[in-house]
Specification:
The protein is of the alpha/beta class. It has two domains: about 110 residues, CBS-domain; about 230 residues, Spore Coat Polysaccharide Biosynthesis Protein SpsA, Chain A. About 25% of the residues lie in helices and about 30% in strands. The chain is built from ten helices and 18 strands. Strands 10-9-6-11-16-13-17 form a seven-stranded mixed β-sheet. The protein has a three-stranded mixed β-sheet with strand order 1-2-3. The protein is elongated, with a radius of gyration of 27 Å.
Length: about 350
Amino acid sequence: MIDESITPIWKKIVLPASATIQEALYVLDESGLRILLVVNPNGKFLGTISDGDIRRGFINGSSLSDLIESLVHREYLGVPPEVSRTQVLALMLDNGIQQIPIVDNEQNLIGLHLWDEVRKPARLSNKLFILAGGKGTRLAPLTDNCPKPMLPVGGKPILEHIVERARGEGIFNLVFSINYLGSVIEEYFGDGKRFGVDITYVKEHSPLGTAGGLSLLKEQVNEPLLVSNGDLITDIKYSEMLEFHTTHQSFITVATRSHEWQNPYGVVLTAGSDVVGYEEKPLSKSNINAGVYVLDPEALSLLQYNEHCDMPNLITKALSTGNRLYAYPMYENWLDVGSPVDLELANDRSERKG
């Protein structure tokens, strides 16, 4: 599908190959886009002309009355309409360009991706469900009168960092699942308008685990649902994770992080009483749960209303029913703020970043 960020101004920079360089300069000046899209008499796309191409034409002896056909850059980089915004942005970055024409398989010009538009996240209708009901026992006494997601990092609550990241990724519909000292969260964020988002709440009257709160959703979910722990400081790109989930037609997508652990001891490999090998301080690698998920709406049917369920249990249920689950490897900054040491590290990182 063509992204909504494509601007209709592209139609104003389409010129026939029979146009003159003078006409081309006028259109370039009027549009301010620094590129022209050139078509043949049948309306088929021929290629592009940039302001640099015209300058080089003048250096080589072209005049204002010459036709632009000789200046057309025919080996252009174009994309079909189904290419995603994320893929287009990557192409722009890799090739150092700011415009990419959209052309169908019959060479019809149907749009133009522009850097200033593509880099803005598309407004997504998907919801982000944030698990903000935890007590944070390991962070006591800091959490005696403050819910863990409201602990400050860089001068603002952890939850506010999550809200800002979601908004920056085009996600404006948020649901907070609250329990312990939930009124503190509700009083601070309200309906979310002050933060440029819409926030609603589900209230757990008793702790329902990392998945049980999802059973309290009042509105019908008709599209993939993002779920995040409320104690994460991360630069994860929610929109890209959603795109990954949709592309793979996943039932549940789990964000994972690569974790390495160095055994401080030499390991003796045995078979019964026989020594069969030896490894000196071996390195163990595994993929750990990063606390961010995307759920197909059907996954919610595996939950019982108002019953405790942790996300590992939901994942196990989903696997037992034969559904396909995918891991989304994330490489962005990530920190689970679960202990005083983690909180101190989060604040240190925030100071360095700021």
